[in-house]
């Protein structure tokens, strides 16, 4: 679980920025600064802020600047940096490996997103109704969410073992010759997608369940009185009212999808033959295998720009299909 | 939809969720070459805990579990403290540039880890911190997400409470400790769960910064095991099983909180 930022969170900073500038007369309760107070007040602010501001500066802000600075250089981590300006960016844009990494990442997202969304939606609808052991069932679906990616990836790699994996054995029982899941270049990415969807299904389900439960029963009942079929009720009441939750799931899944790494690293290591080399594993390899820290940094900024762009486009576009309340 | 069909679907799905875990347990007690047997043996004859023994020989496993536990606990505690303090400052202490600084905090939320990983590694190397506990902990000392989440909670604490405390002669530190913190406990619990899960499961950063087995955390240790014993699936699965147990126990106790807070994070 990486970033859980509610959609509302993204909009409030701007508002906040506008609303509580230095001069802004927000009614302040709490103790007024004592008379000799300016310095004391400043000291109080410092004591409350520095514990987070110092580490944030050291371990996030400086690395951000450092990453950008590195991206303007050629550097093997050992010898001196060599200034190349935007050369790394230019190289990356024309580089076949980079294009492949982005395409593989998009392939992952294109397979993963519909699977987790439709699967999670189906589960949420099924588990929204009263039924015995409902809490237990929800817990079971949530189990993979809390399990570390390393464990999940290892388990699936074992299940999908081409020679002695249980999945291929089961397929054999019904007369299907199972593929070489993570050894066949054509099947490696689908295997990773399958494992990823399996792991995150419970997360999507919980978000959508919360959304479903916020929908007032009266709407459904009124539609039922009007004689609307179950499908029409779902299509015209549930889905639109679920759109804020859907929006959240899609935004988070896309942000995480662009950064897919753990499962790739463990299940295929980017192979076979580079068939599952995604952007982050490419960044990792550029740095630690090929000693090209500058190119790696430039690639990570390209990724960031893309994620930012996609997120902003989604937030802009939400008015068209997201109905709040 | 028919009731029976609904139960059938949900039941089959639950089975699909549990099966990999169950199969991991079976694999871990399957003796020797029988692991690779086709057809697979669901009730392996001569089942043994041998793989668990070999797991302990191969890795300093308990040390790794302890590392994960204490790094998780320390990073959760530190994040709670630093985030709550900053949240209090942003919600209750006026100062010039407060809005702008809050915006800076939020910007860091948008930064994907891969952007930071390379320079962070270089920074750690510069300070001679590669392969240390501190390096594992460093990026998780402060959390912009935590500041954001907890600030919302502090904002919901009525200001009258502060004022009453002021009348009793309390300063900001006392208000923070004895008025605000107790009142934002649900938000603190939510954030603690997220923080611990993130640390317990984190892989990319430890992978880069840790080299020696004695500083490894669980995900890293398990991944190493896989690299060393591509064919020893019983040992790999034994390690997986052991590593799931602690988080599973924690989850059973915290289930209500976890699910409620994940759901809540998706709403407004």
Secondary structure layout plus pairing:
The complex is a heterodimer of chains A (325) and B (268).
Chain A: H1 7-19, H2 38-71, E1 73-74, E2 82-83, H3 87-93, H4 96-128, H5 134-146, H6 149-159, H7 166-173, H8 185-213, H9 217-225, H10 230-241, H11 243-258, H12 262-267, H13 279-288, H14 293-321
Antiparallel strand pairs in A: 1-2
Chain B: H1 3-29, H2 50-58, H3 61-92, H4 98-109, H5 113-126, H6 133-137, H7 144-155, H8 159-167, H9 172-183, H10 185-201, H11 204-209, H12 218-228, H13 233-266
Structure description:
The complex is a heterodimer of chains A (325) and B (268). With 325 residues, chain A is mainly α. Chain A is 71% helix and 1% strand. The longest helix of chain A is centred in the first third of the chain and has 34 residues, at 38-71. Chain A is globular, with a radius of gyration of 25 Å. Chain A starts with 6 loop residues before the first helix and ends with a helix. The relative contact order of chain A is 0.13. By secondary structure, chain B is mostly helical. Chain B has 13 helices and no strands. At the A-B interface, helix 1, helix 2, helix 4, helix 5 and helix 6 of A face helix 1, helix 3, helix 4, helix 5 and helix 7 of B. Chain B: The chain crosses the membrane at residues 61-90, 102-122, 134-154, 175-197, 235-254. Chain B: InterPro entries: MetI-like (IPR000515), MetI-like_sf (IPR035906). Chain B: This is Carbohydrate ABC transporter permease. Chain B: Keywords: Cell membrane, Membrane, Transmembrane, Transmembrane helix, Transport.
